[in-house]
Amino acid sequence: MDGRMDxxxxxxxxxxxxxxxxxxxxxxxxxxxxxxxGRGGGxxxxxxxxxxxxxxxxxxxxxxxxxxxxxxxxETPNIDRLAREGMxxxxxxxxxxxxxxxxxxxxxxxxxxxxxxxxxxxxxxxxTAYRHYMALEEVxxxxxxxxxxxxxxxxxxxxxxxxxxxxxxxxxxxNIGGDSSGAPPTYFYPYKKxxxxxxxxxxxxxxxxxxxxxxxxxxxxFLDGSRGRPFLxxxxxxxxxxxxESKEELTEKYRAKAERLPGRDGPKFVGVYGRYKTRQxxxxxxxxxxxxxxxxxVGRVMRKLEELGVEDNTIVIFMSDNGGLSTxxxxxxxxxxxxxxxxxxxxxxxxxxxMIIKWPGxxxxxxxxxxxxxxxxxxxxxxxxxxxxxxxxxxVDGVSIVGLxxxxxxxxxxxxxxxxxxxxxxxxxxxxxxxxxxxKLIEWYEDESVELYNLRKDIxxxxxxxxxxxxxxxxxxxxxxxxxxxxxxxxxxxxxxxDYQLWRDARLKR
Length: 510
Fold this sequence. Notes:
Elements: E1 4-5, E2 12-13, H1 15-23, E3 34-36, E4 47-49, E5 52-58, H2 77-85, E6 87-93, H3 99-108, H4 112-115, H5 141-147, E7 151-156, E8 174-176, E9 192-193, E10 196-197, H6 211-225, E11 231-236, H7 248-259, E12 269-273, E13 276-279, H8 285-308, E14 314-320, E15 327-328, H9 348-351, E16 352-358, E17 367-369, E18 373-374, H10 378-385, H11 402-405, E19 416-420, E20 431-436, E21 439-444, E22 449-454, H12 470-486, H13 497-509
Parallel strand pairs: 5-11, 5-14, 6-17, 6-18, 7-8, 7-11
Antiparallel strand pairs: 1-2, 3-4, 6-16, 9-10, 12-13, 13-15, 14-16, 19-20, 20-21, 21-22
Helix pairs in contact: 6-8, 7-8
């Protein structure tokens, strides 16, 4: 059963408490924040300080939305510098094309289908029911680090359930802004609009204050208060999720920049997905301003690390939770080309993410990794970085990528999998996918049809090879089905084609 709250003392009881008692017992014998150097860590018995972690998670940031990933319109000098000082991943994936499942995968090291969280929390249960919270029995990466002596701070978007499933019950000492909200009513103080409000922000603030800036202020306060201890700062920005709102001066800056762009005489949008228009290039002024504010946040945090004298012992991770929003019935704010589609889809535009890791003294600056990795890998990777043991029953789907970061061994796994048995406002239909090597297969649950692509030769997924390579398609379909059965993935309540049509028609009418 799930963990539950004991209302007498506010502590979690049940299986989760047992897991913590057993799993963390050995850590209690080590001084908080101190690791014993093992192989490659210095002389035997030598003590070293555990590394700090800063984890930036950006909402709805597309693979092409940064200068270091090829954007010629958005300006991201601080993130580009982070890429020059660390390793940039070209084939990094979110575990789901929408936010909540990916966020749960980072916290637990498990695929969303194993957790039962296959939809953004608050989305429809039709045609597939899902869990609307991350169970308290899950031992998160924050809990694992906290038990090892880390100060743990969460700032920003959580979206993994309503009370009591908030960050403070999942291993975080500090929670600023994290609740059940999937997006703010507005990015401007007091963060209220049409009787909705971001209730978990602490008191204070000034009229016109911008949420991305305020969350950064709170993150810097956490860093100031964590001196003398190793820390995990998880800065999970609401940006660049809708509503698309930027500071006026930035919007005007990019509006003028867009007017100067050459070669914009043709149509701005193309109807690649029927009634869903997709932008052909990046030129949305307000969205560009939101991206710049995120970049400024990264720069402020990095400068604070330097000011505190901890930058050389701080691992910085940068990631997005799903692809950029590019196919919606209204005007989409960004363009993911050359990737196909965007948020909500299992095409590359919906799941391939910008990912950067800076690990001073270990990762070669300016490195580029082309090996496929996914968001379930963060948990075991961070444990190994901190010199902590793997945990039985936890992060069972993720694999450590420390070998890749050191320029060596590739992770041992057969494939990376996705399961999204839902309709989405982008136009996507219930589907699953698997990537093994260069090949990726997508299966559509409505009619059990498949598409096969060679991503190394066809990153835009334009040439479906399923009919040309039936044996490869059958092989990937087989391992995808075996994986779904092995983790007991939830499927639509009925597999009948007529029921899918009813669900689809009802969605289109809304």
